[in-house]
Design a protein that fits this description.
Layout lengths: L12 H4 L4 H12 L16 H10 L18 E4 L25 E4 L1 H4 L2 E3 L8 H5 L4 E3 L38 E6 L2 E6 L1 E2 L2 E2 L1 H9 L5 H30 L6 H17 L7 H18 L4 H4 L4
Antiparallel strand pairs: 1-2, 3-4, 5-6, 7-8
Helix pairs in contact: 7-8, 7-9
Amino acid sequence: MRYVDRARVAQPASLSDPDGAGARERASAEAHYRDPRAGVYKFKAYKGEDVKKALRTLFYGKCAYCESLHESTSPADIEHYRPKAAVVGEADHRGYWWLAADWNNLLRSCISCNRVEGHRIGAIGMNAAQIAAQAARNAGKGNLFPIAAARAFQPGDDCDGEDPLLIDPTRRDPAAHLRWHVAEDLSLLGPRFDDGDADAYGERTVEIMALNRQALVEARSRHLQRLSEVLLDLEEALDEAAQADPADITGPLRRATRKLASLRAAAAPDQEYSAMAQAFVADVQRRLLARYRDLIGTIGAAM
């Protein structure tokens, strides 16, 4: 999960126009919910083609939560950050129905993050065999929306004051709350710790979205292995440059620069698992700068 600037994509016209599908639906839903006995309203405006296109562009075709490029095998869900129809643990809450067609409440999600399903879920310190041995348990966003303050129940209530514990990557930078762990070639995600206490936002987000579910850990770990192979090539080129005569240093330095550029490209926001790659590349650059300090002036901006 990485931060995404929602402002870089314009709000879809069907949701922003005063007489658009979103505005008309909200008026209809408001009339519907005046009856305290009314059931769940059947929302449709958030499924508009312009909404789907805008969300796909905003999140580079990836899931907003796990960063998987999943379209080749499963469709995308349009996820309501604040659930539109109900809230788990709040029997008298009718959902944040007034936000059902609110652009700022919509995210793009894969099915495994958004829907409650059974998963084998790993934890920091587990190896692949231990994760595979876990009993499957239900996880996924569904209608979960834990908060740390008073909940909003109707239009006009202070949604901004709720302090949601689930990270919305368009509102809160996940990097400030999450930390990547690599052991036995597995890529696992956990909360950051401050004075011994787990970051509450990171902890609940990893738990709710099952961001260490077996299939996801395996996919991330395969990607990490490919990055590690590029790193080995980079280190070999730097070792050769460090030992080469000045007249022969250009070739290995060029190879090293290309390999470093390849790693940096993997951390670009449009790439799958880019937050993991970003953390990997940052660590690589720190270690290589310390190890090959004598080459810094030669490599210049490439390092």
